[in-house]
């Protein structure tokens, strides 16, 4: 046990140390300037600008650089004032804490899975015994989740690049931990903060609702939770309003996220389409793209995975990270770090290797093509978009694979491993 | 949705086929890639060059340049002046001439602090003159440059280019149609001068801080759109060689190249590429094989020079700044008759090129930036040559995938076969298997690969690479303290370093685990594949040559029972060490180019040349930020080391034997 704790501390220490070293090295500037890491929404440079303008008594949204809600800006102001030039410590501590929160969330989820398995044991098919999870299968994943967050290069770069996604991830992890332990306050408040910062997490109301409805079996609590999130969010918006006594910030934050006026390239899919598109089709495609992120997958996934809100939350997070208007690597890394929760599904995953290769190649190729496009002037936007498209495809394949593996395992648990139709071997097809 | 279908539907077959046939498939892919590339030189399979940028309007105006007597006069005066300045540019004469023409004339000083060995300083001085555009503010500029070579220089003289440049400047200054500044630049110390001037023009430092002090410029024009570098070796030019390869293998826009060839054709001067003339139409009777052979050799000459990443002319340094540039190198006819000059034709070529460039409305952005040239009239675009590279690198990915699937299948294979054999009894056997499974649980845990160990191996090898990259300054200091010269101390230092690293596998504690070692192999394959693809995006030739060399050797690395096989693998892989590859290449080159000398002397000469090559690579990376050296030390050597560790993989998984035995018992 002692050894376990020691290696546990060592892991967190190494993760924090690597971040500290990178954050104080000369590479920090290069990393924070990468468009894959800093987007107009989360770049620390823009926050600094906003803070400076505020300190001069100028309305910080005036130059169209800042897109963070005023409340968050006020909090950053306090934090920066308190830490001075050691403000990078906030990011490192926050990131390490996120890893721990994810650990807790995963642990709670594992307990939930275990209870679920014990409860339903007699309902499973007879020959499904060997795909039941063993104690070790429940014990390991939480540590893997923490490790996958601490040593995930995407997350590391995200932290070292000083993006506000670090805080977004922190509250998201807090939300997941609160959700899994069924705590009303710790699941609603963090979610409200995430929504107020990023808007898209509003989709996570569905796992929140379903968790309390199906697992805790308390419909009243479920409705209360949703109302609480909305109230907290409204409260935050009003707080923002009282910062400057004007509603203009809505247009600069939520309006900015929804209408996508800044077409700086990023890892997402919006910029290229909206650069190429005729202006009068713009609103049509804005609607269709945003509906694609929000509504298209939201309802079917919520119906199908209503029994497992952690998986539902992860799949929604993954789709957001792929399709939202200003995605960054920090979002992708967060989803990747959650995947070890479903370590028992990895055997069923089909394109794991393909997706892995895709991630490696695109991660190496994106800066290459970017350099050729921007600095050498020899490549062009199509090269870069090709790479980000491959990256998005890999993410979609990954999440589809996990979901399908989950469904397949469920099916096998219920009907057994031998599938036969009229005495012949049958196969499951997704068409 | 074929790809997203049920894992057991079809995928089983695909995986099985992959596991079974991947060795053959990889060989096939590799060979297909090579053949694809070779075929590209065959002219029906590539495309003829054409203009994409309509604004250039090449050759539509009547040439008016007729100051050839003036050029000849400048040339004679320069020859006289050069006798007085044996070691430098005749500054007063050139400055006076430019001022006489009526241009803004400046000089530019720069200093080089030699980074290796004992600290040394070199200084240099460039001359440049700016013709201010008559019809526009100085927002855009064109450059005409000449590397000045004083009589003491070993290279062929370039003094005729200075004469024609002056004559052209005088002619151009009278014309009223210029809408871009023209900068006439005469540089010293070959590439160093241009690099310093460009850094000063843009006020940036490209290499490491404090090595090349670029100084400051007193006069500037606008953003430079294009540059033409002149290297005319004689006053009577019989053929024009056009050089395009730049720093790190970057190439100018194909439209600029087309412009140069078109202008030469118009004025009746044959243009060549890599000093090889184009095949004439009536030569085609020689048969397709000869034709292909000829183009292929031209193509390979380009690949070889591009792969080094060293510019083959001063134009190569412009590319980094987004300036399209090429070098026109003029050669005399084989038998030069008398003192006859053809300055008028050369002047008209320059006039044509610059007037076309003057027409440009926006930067060069059409046409191709990534291409290969099998002759000066045909090109191979990126869409044609990239598949070859993808096939070659794809072989690595397929092998990695096949090995991975095999690794995943191992524990399952026994139960799978049972499934198929006795479906009726599957339930009972399944129970047995599951019982077995739980009892074998602990061994299963051990069997799995150790992510932490693998991660730290990769981290360590790459850290070693970074240390190696930053070591030369210290090595040379250490060496000079013991009286070795720079070249020798670096070479010996690297050899010692590499020899020490060879014992690295001894420290790998997971050496006996089949799974972990195989995972190292898979990851190394993926790294090599990714590196090759990225490299070939930057510099196709380098990526392709590296791929051709390393892919078959990396494919050979398979754990085998036979002791001889594993030794052969190790020896082959040792031969693929970048240091060995470099030494061998240089030695072979020496033996081919210098024949008839005693073996020992050639050997020594080759070794010295190797040492110099390494030092050049390092110095280039420090001054010009040529990244060949960095890529080799940071990526190729660590990758090589990872493969080297993977070579010590045990031939067969021990646990597999156990499992087979266990399954037999079950039956």
Automatic annotation (TrEMBL), chain A:
The keyword Membrane is annotated on this UniProt entry: yes
Parts of the chain that traverse the membrane: 7-24, 86-106, 154-177, 189-210, 222-242, 284-303, 353-375, 381-407
Alphabetic keyword roster: Endoplasmic reticulum, GPI-anchor biosynthesis, Membrane, Transmembrane, Transmembrane helix
Mode of membrane association: Multi-pass membrane protein
Known pathway: Glycolipid biosynthesis; glycosylphosphatidylinositol-anchor biosynthesis
Main location: endoplasmic reticulum
GO CC entries: GPI-anchor transamidase complex
One Pfam family named in its UniProt record: PIG-U
Places the protein is found: Endoplasmic reticulum membrane
Similarity-based family: Belongs to the PIGU family.
Protein name listed in UniProt: Phosphatidylinositol glycan anchor biosynthesis class U protein
Organism encoding this protein: Ignelater luminosus (Cucubano)
From TrEMBL, chain B:
Primary residence: endoplasmic reticulum
Keyword annotations: Disulfide bond, Endoplasmic reticulum, Glycoprotein, Membrane, Transmembrane, Transmembrane helix
Membrane topology of this protein: Multi-pass membrane protein
Compositional bias segments (type: Basic and acidic residues): 425-440
Region (Disordered): 410-445
Subcellular location: Endoplasmic reticulum membrane
GO CC annotation, single: GPI-anchor transamidase complex
Stored InterPro entries: Gaa1
Residues passing through the membrane, by range: 25-45, 379-398, 449-468, 488-508, 520-538, 544-564, 571-594, 627-649
Domain of life: Eukaryota
Pfam family for this entry, one: Gaa1
Quaternary state and interactors: Heteropentamer. Part of the GPI-anchor transamidase complex, consisting of PIGK, PIGT, PIGS, PIGU and GAA1. Interacts with PIGK.
Function: Component of the glycosylphosphatidylinositol-anchor (GPI-anchor) transamidase (GPI-T) complex that catalyzes the formation of the linkage between a proprotein and a GPI-anchor and participates in GPI anchored protein biosynthesis. Binds GPI-anchor.
The protein's name in its UniProt record: GPI-anchor transamidase component GPAA1
Organism: Ignelater luminosus (Cucubano)
